[in-house]
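User: Can you fold this complex?
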Amino acid sequence: MSNIALPILNSKHHLKWYWLSMILLLSLAWLSLSSGPVGWDWKMPIAWLLPDTMTTDINELQMSVVSQIRLPRLLLAILIGSVLACSGAATQALCRNPLADPSLMGVTGGAAVAAIAVIALAPKVSFINEAMVAPAAFIGALTITSVIYRLANHQGQVQITTLLLAGVAINAIAMAIIGLFSFFADDSSLRLMTYWQMGSLGGASWSAMTYGAPLIVVSTIMLILKRRQINALMLGERDARHLGVNVKRLKTEVVFLVALGVGGAVAMAGMIGFVGLVVPHIARLLVGPDLRKMLPLSMLLGCLLMLLADWIARLIVAPSELPIGIVTALFGAPFFIYQLVKQKRGSHA
Amino acid sequence: MLECKNVGITRGNKRIIHDLSFTASQGEFIVLLGENGAGKSTLLSAICDDLNYSGEVLFNGKSMVQYAPQKLATQRAMLLQNNRVNFAFSAAELIAMGRYPYHETAHAQANEVNDIIGQLALESLVDRDVTVLSGGEFQRVQFARCIAQLNAHQAHTTGKLMLLDEPTSALDLHHQHTTLSKAKTFAEQGNCVIAVLHDLNLASLYADRILLLHHGNIYHDGDPKDVLRPEVLQPIYRAGMQINLHPSFQIPMIFSEPLTGASNA
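Assistant: Here's the predicted assembly.
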């Protein structure tokens, strides 16, 4: 008998999607570094990378725009895109449902409330400062993830209806608290809060990166290292346990790592929804649900999506800028409704 | 090989299993029978440490909790009932998940999976998305995953425990026999299989020993000829039945009868 399992199990067809995403990502990164409100010049990234080879009209100001504004922003988009996609994929495996997403579950909202509380209190309370935004966002995300998961988990099965309804309730509470803070906030804090609520990569700077980036990097690397165990979790808790996975510990770790990643992302870029829902779904369509193949592609596609959304957000109303959360919600929400209808049809089939 | 000592299970306020004890040996194919709610699946869950219980479950002389999870996973596998997967793995990928406890190369894994596919005649399903398989097809793929997990496709495998919770509930006649034959062969190699079944005739055909459960107790324990008698079964199943011998195998075959108005009451 020929080995019919071999071509399915060891298929390399995912590699072509990696390459394609990588090429697109590099092109978009180039575009992102080359364009912005101060002007568009495709030579700018080369001038920055190899300053000696260029004898063009690229001036000092343009160079510093690339190195101090566009480059941190590019890296931030890459960090946020990969961590949101990774957290989304891990959350869906944890809940055994492709509709689970940290932003819909209220995790992002919880992180934002904590971050906004720090921003609002920082001018008034002496021991609270900007460095606490990221840890606060993490604690907010962790609290909400734990609460939601406990609420929706019934005898090892996660009830997606409870999960989403609890998410709606928590998001409503989060919005109310943010509204309350906004009501009492001064003008400068108010601007920051609006920025948190709708998400933006506009705050990207090398110094801001030092607060949230470590959380994101740790979360992403750890989730990737655990991909084989999380794969087993997709079969269900009991099956995973029977396969030798320490399910209780793994669940705690996933909840913690998702909170860490989402907390870091919210601390640096505010509430950006739907990336964790849309991107893993597309990755699954292209290479299947096996996280060993799907997670790297999800991260690449997450970066791609964030770069594209940020590029649109920067240029569509230039010289002003649209919050990126609006762009991701505009294509993510219809996608979510489509998924909901599809799942409903599936359950009636 | 497997020893359950005074196993008791309570859920909420209800006592599901009452201080139940039995021993299972290598080479035995044991079938758990009993009415709905008798505690059959709950007992299997206790043997798998899926729920809290009082008493002791020993596997090869050691408590299940003393084993390292990954090591235990190569020694004990369980097929759950009604457990669908929401993600579109291919059947081959799902079977390969059974190899999770083993550290082997991708090529070696594919060879093992291929052997199982051949032995269980799953060729037509290998590249199908498991979320769209029929209930029976999915049950066959999940059974194949258990086979992969225990190396049960290899003739020299011994000393392992396979727990099957209604493995044939969605299968047609042909696949009921292929599945149970495979499990029986596995038991005969020197392993142990404990299966929950509802079909008394399949139990008669395949079981070496039947544990008839009733209200969380062992009501009767014996070989099929001993257990499958009207005076034993009727009080449990509360159904009319006649029992004849199978013309070829000389084992009991049960012919149940519709309930009359009086016996329905």
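Chain B touches chain A through 42 residues (CB under 8 Å). Chain B has a mean pLDDT of 89.
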